[in-house]
Amino acid sequence: MPAVSIDTFFACSLMVLLVLSAMSATARILQPLVNTMASHEAAQRFGEIAKHVLLHAGRPADWGQDGQTVPEEFGLADAVAESPYALDVDKVSRLNSENIYCLSYAQIFTSLRSPDLSFRIEIKPVFNVELNLTSVIQDSDETIYMFQAATKRDEGSPVSTSLKAFVLAENLLRAYTLQNTGGRVDFNITVPTSLESPALLVVFAKSTCNSRIVSYSVYPLTVQGGLFPRGAFLKLSPINHTLIVKPTSSGAVLTGAYALTFNGLWQLTQTGSNTFRIPEFTDASPTVLMVFGLDSTRHFAEWTVYPQIPIHAGVDFTSLRSASDVYAFEHLVSIGYGIYKCTIFIGGPKT
């Protein structure tokens, strides 16, 4: 079957054509997971199911906005979007296992209404941002962190981007603008040595060929209190432009919540004891959400992203090699104002 390479998407001469056109899919038979003689009819059927998931909103059409609603029919499309392959930010986020309103695989399987098939969906940025800490220099006043950022696609080829780096802690914000024309850039950041609050380094990278293609990475910086695993104090779940905060430590007290995008920082307005309103940005970048707090004498920071991408939901087909024919259908999709890569895997009885 014909393949549409992600590389083509990055060719600036084709940007306008690809963005304006319906974001067409690629269907391919996975190797070595499937027999090369798999039927053309099965591929067509599975491809139609994959397209249905991305082109239809499901039932009810707004199931993503209410964490208690389980769809009767599974579909990820934004019900009010006018363009095809536009996905709903909340439906996508409810596929992430970190979200307290995450759908179980059983719920997805039932709502797909195809009991003879197995299903997996992966959604992620079109390219990756990798942060490597290369050196740390500490003196009495400041700690200097030296990083190398690499922007590249899954196969390793570099991506030309413009980058913004932010260092955020309680009562601290520092921003850096970086230019990455060859897929790699070195930069330094500084943090006061006396800082008690945990600090997070957030780097956004925007493709120089298409401003709707944005990726991100978050790097927790070592501070006086040390580092804690994500979720040690709070579980963060964005839904319907509201950040739901569920304490996982009984002594956690919230001291501030923020939203960060490629274009800036906003303090979130608290709407309830553990809820904050997320502004409806027109920025193409993901929104990194950060909550700072205190647990006894320990300062902490927790973060998530909206939409909650990357996601990997469904069956792990590596364990079903001998039982299933597996097809992968790759799409470029829009979520909000950003463009992402989506792969739907569908497995059926081995032919």
What is the gist of this entry?
The protein has 351 residues and is mainly beta. It is 11% helix and 45% strand. Strands 1, 2, 3, 19, 20 and 21 form a 6-stranded mixed sheet that branches. Strands 7-6-9-10 form a 4-stranded antiparallel sheet, with no helix packed on it. Strands 11-12-16-15 form a 4-stranded antiparallel sheet.
What layout of secondary structure does this protein have?
Layout lengths: L5 H4 L5 H6 L5 E4 L10 H16 L30 E2 L1 H5 L11 H8 L5 E8 L2 E11 L3 E11 L8 E9 L2 E9 L3 E9 L6 E9 L6 E8 L12 E6 L2 E6 L4 E10 L2 E4 L1 E4 L2 E3 L9 E9 L2 E9 L4 E4 L9 E12 L2 E12 L2
Parallel strand pairs: 2-20
Antiparallel strand pairs: 1-20, 3-19, 3-21, 4-5, 5-8, 6-7, 6-9, 9-10, 11-12, 12-16, 13-14, 13-17, 15-16, 17-18, 20-21
Oligomer: single chain
Q: Indicate the radius of gyration in whole angstroms.
A: 21 Å
β-strand percent reads over 45%
Give the topology string: H per helix, E per strand. Answer: HHEHEHHEEEEEEEEEEEEEEEEEEE
Please count the beta strands (DSSP E, at least 2 residues each): 21
Identify low-pLDDT runs: 1-38
Number of helices: 5
Biggest β-sheet strands, sense, barrel? 6 strands, mixed
Shape verdict: globular
Estimated structural class: mainly beta
